Structures are given as structure tokens and as C-alpha cells.
Write the C-alpha cells for this entry.
Amino acid sequence: MIYRSNQEKGCKYLLGQPEGQIIRDLIRACPNNIKLKPIEVIQWLLLEREKAIQAKLSEIDLGYVSTALPGSDINWIRTDRLFVTVVNKRHQPSELPEKLLNALNEWCPEPHRLLMSQMRFLMDDRGAIAESEVLSNRYIQVGWLKELLESKSQARNQLISNTITRHWEALGDVLRKDINGFAARLVSHLTSQSSEGIIKQHSKINVQTESKNITKHINCYNSTKPVDGFHLTTGHILELDENPEKEYWICLSPACDLVPGQKTSGLFGRVEDSMPFTAVQLTKIRDKAAIDKVNHNIFLFLDIDNEICTFTFHPGGQLHANPVWEQLISTKKGMFEGEKKELQIWRPGSYSQNQVTMKGHAARVVAQLQYEYALNLLQRFGATMSRVGLDFSS
């Protein structure tokens, strides 16, 4: 098993040992132009040790492993699937629950981990009852079943995904009232203590210096979701391979217009197996500008290749600036290719000899807005498209 200790606590413990003092002394003896921190040396030594025993480690990452710090009176070891504490045989069986509780207290899990654990417990404990309650409405079940069986093959995958989402949400709604009570007790316990102390105890980062990243990550989580679906839909963020830099566009056609094969009139019929859609260009903006004016609802926080990037819906982040939009066309009726959700996009290119040429672009869906956030931008875009020009004179 690949071992991952709690680096911050573990390294601080090692620095407190006699060997740690030797490292401190060696660093003090270094020339002034060599900038090293003792904890960096400890981390490097641990990495070298891991390399030395690499052959003995699993080639498959079996998850995070954490343990009690050496010297602690209470032992425990935790993986993603198991929590264990070892109790001496001289203790009576009746003492085991207390010993386990002491080990759990020593581990001190984060509040949200406790909440998730309660959710998993309720799923195991009351899942069957909740399932019966969800399935009790025969009319809804028959209606959903008819949709699945009578749908066209192009739309069936999306309907399957929607059916799973509906049942999952219904199951959560049934169990939520029990989870709410536990969450209220948990929050009541936490608020009886110092909030600063609680945050410091459970955060693995410096809250003061990382406030910007905290804001970016929470806004990204609230407004986006993992990319899903099998074809282009409202709120998908496209990355186009436009030179010299990549371009980012958000699909803002209504979702009902993007179901493959559903619309055959007008432009939809003329482009045959392709899918026309309206997209608005997103422009990158400085993090501070987006955070300072985040409630203007024109900024996006998107996780692209594990980096939170900030974009604006209006050029320059100006609330009254008109969005830049284009009519794009996706091949294969907007259906994705491969696991990376790739598409081939056509857009107007150059103009010559009284003709507009179309240029092809490789594109991929890199992010997806929650539906209510996508609808907010769609409504804003609709208001822009319906503006009326008036002949006032200055």
C-alpha cells in the first residue's frame, strides 16, 4: 500500500526529534545564499526513503493512509475503507466501544466527513424503506418507463442519465429530513466553540493566505458540475484550438433545441447531420476582479485541467458591455466523441470573393455549469438580443 502520512504534523514531529535538531544545525552552517527550510529537508528525505523502498510498495494506489503520530498514547490507522485501533488483550470486551471512541476522537475527523458518514449510515439503515417510498407512485414510474422504451436511440443515453438523476434526487429527498437533524446538532456543537479554533484544527491550509483560492474553489463548486451527458447542451463550456491561444465559449442555445434529431426545420434541416447552436465567448479575467464583483453574476469560476480559472460573460467584465456571440455548427448532431467529450466545430472564417468560408476547429467540453447558472446567463443573453435602439441625442 502506498503510504501517505499527514505531512505537516509528521514533519513537525520529526523536526522535534534529535535528528531534526541536526538538520537545523546543518542548515544554519550553510552559506547565506542557500535558502532552505528544515521542513523542506524532511520532505526531501521522506521522498528519498520512498524511492528506496519503491519495489516493496504497491503499483496501484490503494488510497490515502493516515495514522496516529508516533509517541501518542492512542493508536489508530485509517484508510479510505477502514479504521482500526489495536487494544491490548488485558482490556475487557465491555471496554472496546470506549477504546474505539477514544481513537476516533484522537483522529478527530472533519465536520463534513461526519456529515457524509451519517448520510452513508442512513442509506444503509433506511435505504430500503426510502426506496419503497420513491417507487410508490406507479403513475410516475410508468411514465418514466414509457419515455425510456419509446425514446429514439440518439436520445436514450441522455434519458437513462436523467432517470438515474431523478431517482437519486428522490432517494436523497426522502432521507434528507433525518440528515437535517444530525447536521443541526453537529453545527450546534461546533458553534459552542471558537470558530477560529475549529477552522484551524480541521483545515490543512493557511486560511489567511489562501482566502482567494478558497473563494475560487467554493464558487466553482457551487456553480459547476462534472461534465455529463452524451451531446452538447446548455451550459457546456467549449475549448477551441484557435491560434495563438485557446478560445473558450459557452453553449447558450435552449436545451430543447440541442436534442439530436428533434428539430428538422430551417437551419437544422439544411445542415443535415450537424447541430447549429449559439455560443457566447468567455474572456479570462484577473481573479481579484471576479471576486470583488462576484455578485454581478457575469463571472465564471471553472476548473479546467485541475486549475480554477476565472472568466467573464461580458467583455472586460463590464456589466453593460454586450456579449460576443456566434452561430456555431457541431458535426454529428452535437454528439460527443470519446471520453474527453470531443467535438468538431465549424464557424465562419474568412471573407473573400463575395463568399464566407467555414473553418473547422477541434473542440472539447472542459466544464459544465449547473443548470440554474446556465439559465441565468441564457436569460441575460436573451435580454441583450432583445434590446431596442432609441434615437436619443446627447
The longest strand covers residues 355-369. Confidence is low (pLDDT under 50) at residues 1-6. The longest helix spans residues 153-191.
